[in-house]
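Example 3.2
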Amino acid sequence: MTKDDRNRANARFTKPNQAKSEYDVATKAVLDNMAKLKALRLAREAASPPPPAAVKKARRKSPEKSGEKAPALADWLAGQQSGGRRT
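Structure, written as tokens:
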């Protein structure tokens, strides 16, 4: 094996390590930025008073549409069967 071949082989194996270290540096930079932003958010939230709780409005009861009651289940099923529907 010549020196040139050896240098080429070493170059192949050193590039992935270099790329990994660049990846690690980028990952660390992102994590540091997230930690800084979280600290700023927590400080801002601690400095300002919490917003008042929203008061839920009471729902109005819907008026009865027609004072009639729905037919009994047995009557409804009988009507469905007589109408040609089978379930």
